[in-house]
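thread: overnight batch results

M.L. [08:02]
morning all. the overnight job finished for the chain we discussed friday. pasting input first so we're all looking at the same thing
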Amino acid sequence: MMKKIIILLLLLLVAIAVVPFFLPKTIHQEAEHIYEQDLPTVYNAFANVQKFSEWFEWEAKENTKHQYSKPAEGASASYVWKDEKGEILGRVKITEAKQNEFIFYDFEIPENPNHTGEVILQQLDDGRTKVIFTFDSAESQYPYQVYYYLIKNKIQKKIEENLIQLEKYLSENTSDTTQKLRDTPVEVSVENQKILGFVQETSFSEEEFNMAKEESLAMLYSYLKDSQRLSDEVIGNAYTYYIKYDASRNLKSMIFGYPVEQEIELVDGMQYYPVEGGKALTLKYNPRLSNLEKTLTKLRNFANQEKLVLGNRFWEEELPNDEIQVFYVLKSN
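M.L. [08:03]
and the structure it wrote out:
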């Protein structure tokens, strides 16, 4: 009997020593799904971490709170979820993104970080959007190799369930896409203010503009939040103030920033830019359904109808509900 026990123990030790050589150190899972919505709409659900968190269930949602970066969209955008005591349970961060093409993520859990994800998007000939979602775990050693091996099917199922959940989310949140948003401009009074930000110059290329915008706002927000310890309330909403807007020369010059009144140390090309107030026309638009040029056209048409004279200054303010509010200053009498 003792001899059999010794043999079993020896076999167990051999198994412990040998099995890791046959188990993968990482796991790679992949799933794809096709959505009825167009490419920009689906991309936005992945590229905006606030929207991403509304349908992507990486963690149990009970008694957890989310905190989002600002800006919450594009490269460097992230969010964390915390328990009731404020302890961080995990983080999702966009490490790289290309408009309407792909997004790379880092998935971090305190005891098991460095997982990555990738989303590839493709517009199909019939107008629908194909998504391929991949997940790659961090490299592990024994005994975590056994754990990964046991849960890989569970992860695969979770990815597939999330992609189905996105279908439901898009259906519920894009049902009114054929309706026009806020057709009638409103005349308002705006106060003098100043914007802290970076001056950038781009062509009218949407990709070039968005890249400059995302990089500028992410760098500025990080500086204000981490180095200057300013709250989101003090930082305010993101602004794009246009200095030049010349379609004939394919040239835009603007300042990307925040309306921070507090004097702070300026670094890395930051500057304060004064914004003179006065009477202005304002109109909101949803960037998934419209754009700045269409909104400016509506404002100009309205001004002509009402016999108002527009000046040459306008800017955009990003609102928390993903709308953008355009202010176009009127010439004073």
